[in-house]
Amino acid sequence: MASVLASAHPQETVYGQVGDATVPLRFSSLDEEYKVLRERAAVLDLGGHGLIEITGPDAVAFAQRVLARDVEYLTSDRCMMTLLLDADGQVVDQVLAFGREDGILLESSCGAGARLLAHLRANNDEGVEIADRSGDLTVLGLEGPYAWGVVGRLIDGELASLPFESVVDTTWNGADIVFARTGFTGEYGYQMIVPIEHAADLWRQSLEHAQAAGQEALELAMLEVRQPIPRHEVTEGATVVEIGANWLVDVTKDEFVGREAVLAAFEAGGGRRTVGFSGGDGVPAPGTRVWVNGQDIGEVVHAVHSVGLGATLGLARVDHDLAAAGLELTVGGTEVTTLTSPYIVPKSWSIPII
């Protein structure tokens, strides 16, 4: 699935395949786009996120069964992040669920729209209507410590101060859009779900007040605040607890797909946990072994060079009793130190919306 905004991107844009989507990895340089995200305001092409609408008399009951958090009372002015699991408790996807008057709208993680759609259809015991809206809607994001100012200049200043996970149906240049206060990076964040025919115009107008940032800068900023990135962190056999995504699951719900497996993982204890680390020479590949005192205790899950830290930043899945901050471990023959999150403190945490 190619970006519907490709024709509006600069010629030097570098693209990459993420799951079922071809997405802009960077428009200029990672360093520049990262600094825009952390210091000013960035506009994001989130067209790699699939949009799937669930409607019908049993739409909410169906969503309540397949989503791992409670959405029974998710109204049309709210959204929430949650997981979809299979019967074995394995993560299918991490989604944003939007309450709608006639059902639920789900936004997939990047490149996971087709997998999410297939999972929903395979579990549709209620006979609800499941429609892929990615052919007529797309998603644009605004993130950064001054993203709120862009919202004011672009649409309406009052929208900038919405509470987190609030949703408003509004218009832009005569087009109906869904506007949400969300965010992936710890900075002020907003999303706009827009009809495809108006997306390029909104993108160009956004660029009058912000700078474009690609998937590489976005995922680095997400990692720095320990925002889960499913495509990097979901590995075969890893439980929700081992991944560290248990905050996206509500085990007090009476029923959801995968609940018994999640409960078993909670009750079993032990196993491995995911912890951040920094340091070392170079960026270790996923699967690189992690050692302490000559003992193999786990493996690297994901690692990159952090522009903000000026060093390697990564996640390792290690024995649960060693998933703590301040430990010296060996990765790929070099020493690293485990960290507590967030690994970078977002500037937005100290800047009020004016």
TrEMBL record:
Write down the PANTHER family for this protein, in alphabetical order: AMINOMETHYLTRANSFERASE (PTHR43757), AMINOMETHYLTRANSFERASE, MITOCHONDRIAL (PTHR43757:SF2)
InterPro entries in the record: GcvT/YgfZ/DmdA, GcvT/YgfZ_C, GcvT_C, GCVT_N, TrmE/GcvT-like
Per UniProt, residues of the GCVT N-terminal domain are 13-253
Q: Name one GO molecular function term.
A: transferase activity
Q: Which Pfam families match?
A: GCV_T, GCV_T_C
Could you tell me the keywords of this UniProt record? Transferase
Record domain Aminomethyltransferase C-terminal: where: 272-331
Q: What is this protein called?
A: Aminomethyl transferase family protein
Keyword Transferase annotated:
yes
Q: Which organism is it from?
A: Nonomuraea montanisoli
